[in-house]
Design brief:
Blueprint (H helix, E strand, L loop, with lengths): L23 E5 L7 H11 L3 E5 L5 H12 L4 E5 L4 H10 L3 E3 L5 H10 L2 E3 L1 E2 L2 H9 L5 E3 L2 H4 L1 H9 L7 E3 L8 H6 L5 E3 L1 H4 L2 H4 L2 H13 L4
Parallel strand pairs: 1-2, 1-9, 2-3, 3-4, 4-5, 6-7, 7-8
Helix pairs in contact: 1-2, 1-11, 2-3, 3-4
């Protein structure tokens, strides 16, 4: 599954991007590397069809390649915490279709465009958000969303910046993810509130329950 084409900068056209695999992106970070495949399988089978595997997860390259090979036709698989172009190149070679960074680096953005990956750079302030969008972001990762003020912050920022597609991440819980979408986000990214300790312990039953709880609260 490929990431959708970049949207225009026409003001007032919210909802153009809408991450093709759905409104929730599962962020897999850390662990031992032993349970990555099982966690991906559980999430996809539960209906979470956008998977971000970060570069500070052991065996992240192998995890991306496995997920793309197994689920690439039904889920979007991307890389997170991209800090340089080498990591982006490795992720592209593994089959990732989108790349996420905690910051905005135009060099990474340019390489993402060259490799055909959707680029989701991190930003916090209105100035940073607009700058990331002007540099060609497919969507801007608003981070850390909860600490910045949550859905209320997002709603205020998007009042004048309604032409920007944003994906808030950081501190978003299972029960408030829908509030971010209602505030104007095109998708939300969830790490530990969704994944929990599954990457460390392999507890897939609890992961399956959390995934169901999340999806029941989100619009389709």
């Amino acid at each position: 599954m490929t990431d959708p084409a970049p949207s225009t900068t026409t003001a007032g056209a919210r909802g153009r991007h809408r991450h093709q695999a759905g409104p929730a992106i599962a962020i897999l970070r850390g662990g031992t590397g032993e349970h990555v495949e099982d966690v991906v399988r559980t999430l996809v089978e539960a209906g979470v069809l956008a998977i971000e595997i970060t570069t500070n997860t052991p065996r992240w390259r192998e995890g991306i390649a496995w997920a793309v090979d197994r689920y690439g036709s039904e889920a979007s698989v991307g890389v997170g915490t991209v800090m340089d172009t080498r990591q982006l190149d490795d992720a592209a070679a593994a089959g990732a279709v989108f790349a996420v960074s905690p910051h905005t680096d135009p060099v990474i953005g340019e390489r993402a465009h060259e490799r055909g990956l959707g680029w989701y750079p991190g930003a916090a302030t209105p100035t940073e958000i607009v700058r990331a969008w002007q540099l060609g972001a497919r969507a801007v990762k608003v981070f850390p969303a909860a600490q910045l003020g949550g859905p209320a912050f997002l709603r205020q920022v998007l009042a004048p910046l309604d032409f920007v597609d944003v994906i808030p991440t950081g501190g978003i819980g299972l029960d408030d993810a829908a509030d971010y979408l209602a505030a104007g986000a095109v998708a939300v990214g969830l790490g530990s509130p969704l994944v929990g300790d599954a990457l460390h312990t392999g507890d897939l039953d609890a992961l399956r329950v959390r995934a169901g709880q999340l999806l029941r609260g989100l619009p389709r």
